[in-house]
Design a protein that fits this description.
29% of the residues lie in helices and 30% in strands. The protein is of the alpha+beta class and 168 residues long.
């Protein structure tokens, strides 16, 4: 077993947090789509999440070393909260770290009524994690015929994404 802590990210750790997150997302995408030509998780997407109203970012420490992290956006009024990003550092997956991160997020935000998140259609590992490990349900499938009404990015409006919810 290992010692696990989820702590707020410090400003001097954000660069490595972003790099680790981008690598984890890239390696995950390459595993399912080896011929990828598009950029996976641009830094601007992470920055947009970090600067959103209600955003909170945490680092996951395993035996004192950063092994992952999470960014959530909390709506104090509706308590309909959003999991923007959750990652486990490449090379340390499949050890329960992702589940430990999620359990701690749920503990930190007990007033949450509904959690929501999205993941690309090809991320089988993420779909398994959210549905089978964390208890989310797939509630919508965004695609060129059913576009994400909240997307402001024209480049991703036609992407294929699952939307998940977890009612608490």
């Amino acid at each position: 077993m290992y010692e696990f802590k989820l702590l707020p990210i410090e400003s001097d750790e954000i660069a490595i947090f972003k790099t680790d997150m981008q690598e984890a997302f890239l390696k995950g995408a390459e595993a399912d789509c080896p011929d990828l030509t598009e950029e996976i998780l641009p830094e601007a997407d992470i920055d947009r999440s970090l600067s959103a109203k209600g955003a909170a970012a945490y680092k996951a420490l395993v035996d004192g070393k950063m092994a992952g992290g999470v960014i959530v956006v909390i709506d104090e009024v509706t308590q309909h909260n959003h999991l923007d990003f959750l990652y486990v550092k490449y090379g340390v997956q499949s050890k329960g770290i992702g589940q430990a991160i999620w359990r701690e997020i749920e503990r930190l935000y007990p007033k949450t009524k509904v959690w929501e998140t999205c993941t690309p259609y090809f991320e089988k590992r993420n779909i398994h994690f959210y549905v089978n490990r964390c208890g989310f349900h797939i509630v919508e499938f965004y695609n060129p015929y059913h576009k994400d009404p909240h997307s402001t990015n024209e480049e991703t409006k036609d992407d294929y994404f699952f939307r998940f919810e977890k009612v608490m």
